[in-house]
Design goal:
About 45% of the residues lie in helices and about 15% in strands. It contains eleven helices and seven strands. Helix 10 links the parallel strand 6 and strand 7 (about 185-190). Helix 4 crosses helix 5 and helix 6 packs parallel to helix 11.
Length: about 210
């Protein structure tokens, strides 16, 4: 019989290993590939009000289009977003294999991510995660982000489960703390804990 637990996976830094030593890997060849300043791009895109984009109050494409006009990037915003999202697509085989194995065992799984809507659509369609999890919960669609308590409440309300049925795997300590405050179980995922976490998940949901 399948467990009544719902596993909620963070995306970047957990299912998707696109960060190394605090640096996003998509940016490594930005200047070589596009002939544009990475510093100018990041300062324009990730300025202090980036939460407006993360929570769906502003369209990421509009801000990228502003940058493209400002620096004279002729290919335009859509080309830049496609480049960015594809360079940022680095799923972790060990983690995704665990996810898939647990799914085959009948356990419900979702993604819970702080991402805006355009990238979430890419994650679902081009990266294929819409077929691998029951649902993708994202800050851009929900209007709230982790670690805000409302994020966790909306997830449990939508799934029609109690908080103690939820298990979050996340690489951000504040998100873990907030999940536990909301009554969820939670694992803090990092290079030191990843092996133990994957082993624990397999033991609980595959070998029980």
């Amino acid at each position: 019989m399948a467990s009544d637990t719902v596993i909620a996976w963070d995306f970047d830094g957990v299912l998707n290993q696109n960060i190394r030593d605090g640096v996003f890997l998509w940016a490594q060849q930005f200047e070589e590939d596009l002939g544009q300043s990475l510093d100018v791009f990041t300062k324009h895109i990730f300025r202090n009000d980036f939460d407006r984009i993360i929570t769906g109050q502003e369209d990421l494409r509009d801000r990228v289009a502003e940058w493209a006009t400002m620096v004279g990037f002729a290919p335009g915003a859509n080309t830049l977003l496609d480049y960015w999202f594809r360079k940022d697509a680095l799923p972790d085989p060990a983690v995704t294999d665990t996810l898939d194995a647990i799914s085959r065992n009948g356990v419900r799984q979702v993604i819970a991510t702080n991402n805006e809507s355009r990238r979430v659509s890419f994650i679902e369609r081009e990266m294929g995660f819409a077929k691998r999890v029951d649902r993708v919960f994202s800050s851009g669609r929900m209007g709230v982000r982790k670690p805000q308590p409302e994020f966790y409440a909306k997830v449990t309300e939508t799934l029609r489960v109690s908080p103690d049925q939820m298990l979050l795997v996340d690489d951000y300590a504040a998100s873990i703390e907030a999940a536990r405050d909301a009554g969820w179980r939670a694992y803090l995922f990092n290079d030191e804990t990843r092996g133990d976490i994957l082993e624990s998940l397999r033991a609980e949901f595959l070998n029980a």
